[in-house]
Structure formats: structure tokens, C-alpha cells
Specification:
By secondary structure, the protein is α/β, with parallel strands linked by helices. It has two domains: about 45 residues, no CATH class; about 150 residues, Glycogen Phosphorylase B (Rossmann fold, 3-Layer(aba) Sandwich). About 35% of the residues lie in helices and about 15% in strands. The chain is built from eight helices and seven strands. The strands form two sheets. Strands 5-4-3-6-7 form a five-stranded parallel beta sheet, sandwiched between helices. Strands 1-2 form a two-stranded antiparallel sheet. A hairpin with a 5-residue loop joins strand 1 and strand 2.
């Protein structure tokens, strides 16, 4: 496969993709030969007879960060249900605003509250559709309110990766160990972009991050 860029007079660049004959077959053959040479099967995946045995994927703790309206939360419901069902059987918690707790739990998914009010967030966006806030928002003190709310949401996203429970209790309150069945430490994060804290949490914990915009 060959890429041929062309610069137009208006400054735009067009990229022409030319498929060479059997290019994909050649690439796959080279990749397979390279991977077999450098990436042998793990020892625990080899039976006594020397054959490669397919193992189930390890069970992961997955935190899904969502900031937004119900329309932002809803597409992640089937994703969480799929990941928490066989053959994957991961532990998945949807981490979003407390107003959606019943909606998430009614679908059989673990919930964690990151705080924030989606109605106030949407109202601010409607009031300030541009990149910079308007004078009305500045006079009304909306900016400081949103900063405090985003601070709570970002802190809530961090606790959703490392804290037991559902996030409705104070982070400094003592944990009732008898009421908590399992502690939670995220192995991976799935997030929509407006949750903001996703990249920082993933970097701090050294875990993979997958960003989805619904």
C-alpha cells in the first residue's frame, strides 16, 4: 500500500492511497513470520504435548468515565454489559453523575458517582456556545462555579479508579469493610473526552486508556 500526497493551490493536502497487488497478503506473511520469531507463546499456554492452548483473558477492573447527559451515558451501557459477560467476565463500573445511578444499576452494572450536575453543565454550554465565555457568565460568576464543579468531577474520576464503594460517601470517611465485597483498582479506563481526568488517571496508574466519543 502506497500513500501519495498532493498539495492543492488552496493549501489543502489530498492523500491518494494506492493499493499494490497482494500488498496485504505480503504484509500479513511478513508479520506472521516476525511475530513467531520474536513473540513465542507464553510457557503457561503450552500443554505437556507441546501444543498451544487458548487461555481465557485475565479478569480486569475497568472504569468507564462519562461526563454529560443521559445520551452520553446510554451508549456505554451495552459496552459495559458485553465486557462484564462471558467470555470476558471483567468487572466494569460506570463512573458518572449521581443522577444516573438508578439508570446504570437497573441495567445490572456497577455504578460509581463522580459528582457533578449534568443539567448545569449543559446549561453553561448552551449559554456559552463559543470558545470563550460571554460577559453575562463572567458577571454571574458562572466560571468559578464551573471550575469548582469540574474540580469535584476530576477528583471523583480519580477515586473511581482506586476507591471501594459507589462514590456516594466522603473519600475521607472510614470504609465499612463488611459492606464492601471487593476493593477496586482500575486495570484499564474507557472514557468520553469531556471527563478530562481520563488521561491523568491512566498515566498515574500506568494503565491503558481508550477514549470514545458517542
Amino acid at each position: 500500500m502506497v500513500f501519495r500526497p498532493h498539495a492543492n493551490r488552496d493549501g489543502r493536502v489530498e492523500l491518494e492511497v494506492v493499493k499494490e497487488q497482494n500488498s496485504q497478503a505480503v504484509w500479513f506473511e511478513r508479520y506472521t513470520r516476525f511475530s513467531k520469531k520474536t513473540c513465542p507463546a507464553p510457557k503457561d499456554n503450552i500443554s505437556d504435548e507441546g501444543k498451544v492452548v487458548e487461555r481465557s483473558p485475565p479478569r480486569l477492573n475497568i472504569a468507564i468515565h462519562i461526563v454529560g447527559s443521559r445520551g452520553d451515558v446510554q451508549p456505554f451501557i451495552p459496552i459495559a454489559q458485553l465486557l462484564s459477560s462471558p467470555p470476558y467476565n471483567h468487572r466494569v463500573r460506570i463512573c458518572t453523575h449521581p443522577v444516573f445511578q438508578k439508570f446504570v444499576e437497573d441495567n445490572g452494572i456497577e455504578f460509581f458517582s463522580i459528582g457533578g450536575d449534568p443539567e448545569s453543565l449543559m446549561a453553561y454550554m448552551v449559554k456559552n456556545p463559543g470558545l470563550l465565555p460571554g460577559m453575562e457568565s463572567i458577571r454571574d460568576g458562572d466560571i468559578s462555579k464551573r471550575r469548582r464543579e469540574m474540580h469535584d468531577i476530576i477528583e471523583g474520576c480519580w477515586h473511581s479508579c482506586i476507591t471501594a464503594g459507589d462514590g456516594t460517601r466522603s473519600p475521607i470517611a472510614p470504609i465499612d469493610v463488611e459492606s464492601v465485597t471487593e476493593l477496586f483498582l482500575a486495570d484499564a479506563i474507557i472514557a468520553n473526552p469531556p471527563s478530562y481526568a481520563h488521561i491523568h488517571c491512566a498515566e498515574k496508574l500506568g494503565i491503558p486508556l481508550h477514549i470514545i466519543f458517542t
